[in-house]
Amino acid sequence: MRVSVCVRGDWLVVPCGDPSKSMRWLGLEALRRYARAHPSEVLSSQPSFVLKRCVDGGLLDVEDSISSVLSDNDFVKLRRSTEVGNVLRLYISLDGNSLTTADLVSLGKGHYKIKLVCVWAGVGAALIPERTRMLLALRINTLAKGYSGVSLETLQKMLSAFNASCLSWVPEKGTVGASGDLAPLAHLALGLMGEGQMWSPNTGWTDARTVLEGHGLTPISLKPKEGLALINGTQMMSSLGAEAVERAEAIARQADVIAALTLEVLRGTNKAFDNDIHAVRPHAGQILVAQRFRALLHSDIFPSAIAEEKPYDRVQDAYTLRCCPQVHGVANDTIAFVKKILNTELNSSTDNPLVFAERGITISGGNFHGEYPAKALDFLSIGVHELASISERRIERMCNPSLSDLPAFLVKEGGFNSGFMIAHCTAAALVSENKVLCHPASVDSLSTSAATEDHVSMGGWAARKALRVVEHVEQVLAIELLAACQALEFFRPLGTTAPLERVYELLRTVVRPWDKDRVMSSDIEVAHKLLLEEKVWKAVLPYMEQYKDSHRDHISSRTQESSPQSSNHTHYFLIRKRRENQWLVL
């Protein structure tokens, strides 16, 4: 077995004759080889370092065996503690108050471990390990608030299980979202008690006690109140909701980029994104989206040869082009609203009864009811779905020669090739499926527990279907990205703006142009992966910052040139300043 380790920019191949050795040995061996290649550098006799897997950025435990966390020819980065400073967090501290949706998703991916700052009956497929990690991390965070009556010993055992990636088998179905997510959380607790099934990178799925003992851990032994505390709460719906809202935020940003590219190949105008239009209807999301379009489309800063070649000869564009700030904008505002709700929920005590030690009392209440996250996640599904709905219509405009100057289905020899016809059908199918999934789960309620729990939130289903809706949105926009880049081929040798050319170049590193029919599912998958990794957004971000800086400098120079000399000049200067500097009140 061989592992490539990066130390200060140097890649060192470390043969691992005995892969059962620890990751600490691997790091020390890499440092030894680095020191031999750089004799002038002085290394500590007891170096401290961290190791991260290159493929996913996951933090590696130095006590794990090499074979348990790496494969042959894997790549790892080593950073010494003196180089890390405040740049890299090894742990996320859970105090019950400050966990964010972004933190929770990072914990799910295994990027960090956690530490404390202290003050059954489900069915269906099991949650994937990433989502079970999120669920366990969130449960620990809630219990860490100190209102659940759980001992520090039990909490520390849960924390140790998380840090060792010992994860219970948790079914995705079985919660009605009141009295919390009882069934899923019961399964989460079951594994921690040494019962049922667990998973770890070392063992895969096997009986829970074997997994715990294999990592030197002991099962939880429940003390008074702890049984209720471990199974009562909204953590299932909230953890799945955190993933949904983070992915929704990522695809909403990239939807603006993809739509701008589509507008370019459909020879649309950027007039609909003029600042004054949106200043008189100042919704935050609408203004933000219009700003992004102005930065991406033809301008003095980023000119487009396509836009300059043929003057715009229509009165206005179709709604799917000129109404992007309004439609995409409300999706952005919806995501912001849902994120605020969830960030509050992540740091709330949601079990029952709650223990108020400072008052010496225990009170039974209703914080377990999942109506807040359920309603928010239903709203998320409805809001983010529109990104796919409008995207599918833009795909249709590119594929339909009666609606554009492009070849039918974006292929030259239409009689021999179907081009993007079936890809558009796939987008239409996903959008249609989303219409059903957007029916709110939280409008339903069924009485349970002998009519004691006589109103429930259905938040678990709201969260699960929100994830499906977001995934469908990502896939539809992946198809639009493929179609827009294919349409751009018909304008060559003319180029578009610098940021949009960068998006085209990014896609062409993984998908070649469409010259004749081939299997397209793999193209859609790799385009979807680009969006999941936010590479489309990262590709244009430097250009958007450049546009912002250049626009600011342009305004500053024009302001200095327009120093007022009289009342008439002042009037002219103020109007111009209002229009160029985007000020509404002077």
Automatic annotation (TrEMBL):
Top EC class for this record: lyase
Keyword Lyase applies: yes
Gene Ontology BP terms: L-histidine catabolic process to glutamate and formamide; L-histidine catabolic process to glutamate and formate
Key words, A-Z: Histidine metabolism, Lyase
EC number: 4.3.1.3
SUPFAM superfamilies for this protein: L-aspartase-like (SSF48557)
Gene Ontology cellular component list: cytoplasm
Gene3D superfamilies: Fumarase/aspartase (Central domain), Fumarase/aspartase (N-terminal domain), Phosphatidylinositol 3-kinase Catalytic Subunit, Chain A, domain 1
Name this protein carries in UniProt: Histidine ammonia-lyase
Source organism: Electrophorus electricus (Electric eel)
Gene: LOC113583744
